[in-house]
Amino acid sequence: MSTPMLASHEGVSTEVNATEHRVLHSWEPRDHYEMLQISKLVPGSGRICLVGRVVNFYEQPTPNKMPHAAKGCLKVHLRDDSGIILVRLWYAQVDYQLRLGQLVSLFATHISYVNPVGSTSRTVHTASYATTIFPEHDNSCYVDIQADAIYGALMRTPLGYDSEKQLAGLITLKSFIDGGHEVLDGKVLVFVKSVGGLTTKHGNSLEQVNVNISDDTCDAMLSLCGRSARSAAYWKTSHTILLISNPSFRFAKQPLLCLSPSTHVDVDPCMADAEWLRGFAQRLTAKEVVNVSFPARVFDIDAAAKADERLYFTLSDVDEYCGVAIYANTTSALCKQCNSSVALGINPRLIGTLIDDSGTISSGKLVFSPSAWEQLLGRTDQELAETTSDTLRALEHRILFLSVVAIQHTANKDMRVAANAWVLQSQRRRRPIARLEGEDAPPMITRAP
Hints:
- By secondary structure, this protein is mainly β.
- It contains seven helices and 23 strands.
- It has helices spanning 173-177, 272-284, 301-305, 315-318, 370-377, 381-385, 389-399; strands spanning 34-35, 44-61, 72-79, 84-91, 103-113, 129-133, 142-145, 170-171, 187-195, 199-200, 207-214, 219-225, 241-245, 248-251, 255-258, 264-267, 332-334, 341-343, 354-355, 360-361, 366-368, 404-410, 421-428.
- Strands 8, 9, 10, 11, 12, 13, 14, 15 and 16 form a nine-stranded mixed β-sheet that branches. It has a five-stranded mixed β-barrel with strand order 2-3-4-6-5.
- β3 (72-79) and β4 form a beta hairpin.
- It is elongated.
């Protein structure tokens, strides 16, 4: 794993640059700083360098009229791949432009426990170690904010994540609202649905922003107050994924999640569930065709308008009955809306994504004729409904990665209007595009007699 700003295994000797906060002075280490993971820290004095991402931060103002005295302290939770540390970042004139998810390099000279032995503090902390720095007055310590464009994927794996197991404490947003917020170390994985405007709370200078979050179960609101509110300006709707650990919860007009000192927020975590949720969010916002082009030069409009005999249709004849979707494992079913018998066809979404060397067509965008289905599946719709589950599973493996030639008709020359494409015939090519590695393709399933 490459680490930002490391010149050798012994320490750091190169000048720190490319910072996002331009107010803080440029800095060059005068001695070697040992690069350590948070889990390897030992309380005591020593020059160390840590690299981690901001998972929470909040301000502790300390008003002081002295010109060079500290004006406040930012309590920052940094997380790397091994643990979390609490950083007490004191400031006087510098405005540290921190935000959730940023990659930060920290240079410090002392490490301590969060709550020393014998301390009476009852504050809940999820960090085991702490350090205190004041870069404006102490030239032996420094904090540097790295650009995500360079280290975008570094240290984004959640603590305790195993690709073969579900993350401990992870529950759905609905389960969290229904009582899961009382569980210790509960986690929710959500996507950003929308971001509200930045406002001031109760007329003072405390900034606040409400973020509409959601997963595949329900919606809620995430309230960010103080300096962390500016983080939402960098989040993208239906793309940014948040793993929120141990948030506080209350129910106002709608479910409201807030950040407490023990809350951690992982922005765009590297985990399989996050990739699935991002795909789910983007499918929800997929644009549908609003104005479908009329098929030109297909119908003889003049002949139809001047015909001597015309067929009379009612709206129920030309519409899909009541417009209610009916799903069944038979070729006909009874509509629960109008109590009429409806002839059913094969669901177009049976075929997943189609791909060639120029693009893709998502599932359900092509309308197959009965003959095209029979040529592709080797059986009629009635025979398909009577097929056993084992045969269907073999058929699924057979058509996966199968190369086909689709003879189709479209009402628009622009083939990107996929909703207007009717597949008249489908023919198998002699050679498939690909096969599953390490698995032989099942034999061709012939049409039943």
